[in-house]
């Protein structure tokens, strides 16, 4: 079976010549359809940089990427928007303060030239557990958890099979984190979604993911199942250090 996402030898550097600074050193992993895969590591390890390459925010990377069996070279196109969408870390910064929820959700539909805009907005709001009346609200009128639900709705409204999740709960209160994680797990089960989740929190990864890769200084140092991680079967010293820090 073709992987939903295949990344081979992904490399990225900033600057040129002697001033060049390499931030990704040959990152490779595969995610099967319907699987949730985590990228974990400390700040600066390169995990969010991988997401930005896959989302089209960085386009000068090298390597091979395929999404749903189709080669991807970094373009930000309507075709790519229907294959993969990103949910950002900060629910306060990812929504325009002067745009209503309806405006935020309608924009990708209009860009794609789709019809039944209000019907699609109502459908996706209900999917993420929000009343359809929320379409008339502004970001400052809803809570952080509700904003993140809107951000997830915006990512889902084009019905992409792959979601790129950049620390989607780290800016939320602990009680709200659990609600959003449970929502993501439910959406994945109901719609057969594939997730690539970036997080520094091993607990979040263990809750949501089947497999994970551990990144250190722009490299993947270990790939293992979540079950193996929870059973203490990590092989690399850095992974064991992360686990010890999470348990402290």
From TrEMBL:
UniProt-annotated location(s):
Cell inner membrane; Membrane
EC nos: 7.4.2.10
Give the highest taxon in the source lineage: Bacteria
Lipid bilayer topology = Peripheral membrane protein
Q: Read off the Pfam families from this record.
A: ABC_tran
Molecular function (Gene Ontology), one example: ATP binding
Signal sequence region? none
Enzyme class, broadest EC rank: translocase
Q: Which CDD domains match?
A: ABC_NikE_OppD_transporters
Q: What SMART domains does this protein's entry cite?
A: AAA
Looking up InterPro entries in the UniProt record yields: AAA+_ATPase (IPR003593), ABC_transp_ATP-bind (IPR050319), ABC_transporter-like_ATP-bd (IPR003439), ABC_transporter-like_CS (IPR017871), P-loop_NTPase (IPR027417)
What's the chief localization of this chain?
Answer: membrane
Kindly state the subunit structure of this protein.
Answer: The complex is composed of two ATP-binding proteins (GsiA), two transmembrane proteins (GsiC and GsiD) and a solute-binding protein (GsiB).
What the protein does?
Part of the ABC transporter complex GsiABCD involved in glutathione import. Responsible for energy coupling to the transport system.
The family line of this record is: Belongs to the ABC transporter superfamily. Glutathione importer (TC 3.A.1.5.11) family.
Q: Which PANTHER family match?
A: GLUTATHIONE IMPORT ATP-BINDING PROTEIN GSIA (PTHR43776:SF15), TRANSPORT ATP-BINDING PROTEIN (PTHR43776)
Indicate what this protein is called per its UniProt record.
Glutathione import ATP-binding protein GsiA
């Amino acid at each position: 079976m073709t992987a939903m996402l295949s990344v081979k030898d992904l490399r990225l550097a900033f600057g040129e010549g002697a001033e060049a600074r390499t931030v990704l050193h040959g990152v490779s992993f595969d995610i099967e359809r319907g699987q949730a895969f985590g990228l974990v590591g400390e700040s600066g390890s390169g995990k969010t940089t991988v997401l930005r390459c896959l989302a089209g925010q960085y386009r000068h990377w090298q390597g091979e990427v395929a999404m749903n069996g189709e080669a991807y070279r970094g373009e930000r196109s309507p075709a790519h928007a229907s294959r993969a969408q990103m949910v950002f870390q900060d629910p306060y910064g990812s929504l325009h303060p002067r745009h209503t929820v309806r405006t935020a959700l309608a924009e990708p539909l209009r860009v794609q030239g789709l019809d039944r805009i209000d019907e699609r907005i109502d459908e996706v709001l209900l999917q993420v557990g929000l009343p359809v009346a929320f379409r008339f609200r502004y970001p400052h009128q809803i809570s952080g958890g509700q904003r993140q639900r809107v951000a997830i709705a915006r990512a889902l409204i084009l019905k992409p099979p792959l979601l790129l999740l950049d620390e989607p709960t780290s800016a939320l209160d602990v009680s709200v984190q659990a609600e959003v994680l449970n929502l993501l797990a439910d959406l994945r089960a109901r719609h057969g979604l594939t997730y690539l989740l970036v997080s520094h929190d091993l607990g979040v990864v263990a809750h949501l993911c089947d497999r994970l890769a551990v990144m250190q200084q722009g490299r993947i140092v270990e790939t293992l199942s979540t079950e193996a991680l929870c059973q203490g079967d990590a092989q690399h010293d850095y992974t064991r250090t992360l686990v010890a820090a999470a348990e402290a």
